[in-house]
């Protein structure tokens, strides 16, 4: 999954109907948009970079949870979303330091 990170000086930027905040990776799946952003000097496009779940925003986590088929994801808070996604990645075993039962 290609992630794009905005490296510009603005507090935030909306481009191609996507809101970018400095140093926050955003999942971009549209290949045409990716090609345009790849050529832009204020953006870093990295398809291989592994983004920590803790670095993603709540809407990004909810999007991942929706795609993963997690029931009730819309009502979960950030730590709960992270725990649920990690449980799926780790074979269904939640982290030992997780606050969720």
Report on this structure.
The protein has 101 residues and is α+β, with helices and mostly antiparallel strands. It has helices at residues 31-39, 58-68, 78-89, and strands spanning 3-6, 13-15, 18-20, 26-27, 43-46. The strands form 2 sheets. It has a 3-stranded antiparallel sheet with strand order 4-1-5. The longest helix has 12 residues, at 78-89. The chain starts with a strand and ends in a 12-residue tail after the last helix.
Distinctive features:
5 strands; disordered C terminus; 101 residues; 16% strand; alpha+beta
Described by the principal axes of the CA atoms, the overall outline is elongated
- Radius of gyration (CA) equals 15 Å
Could you describe the largest sheet, including whether it forms a barrel? Answer: 3 strands, antiparallel
The overall average pLDDT, rounded, is 82
Strand content: 15-25%
- Compute the number of helices: 3
Helix coverage percent of residues?
A: 25-40%
Helix-strand pattern: EEEEHEHH
Structural class estimated from helices and strands? alpha+beta
Beginning-to-end CA distance, first to last residue: 30 Å
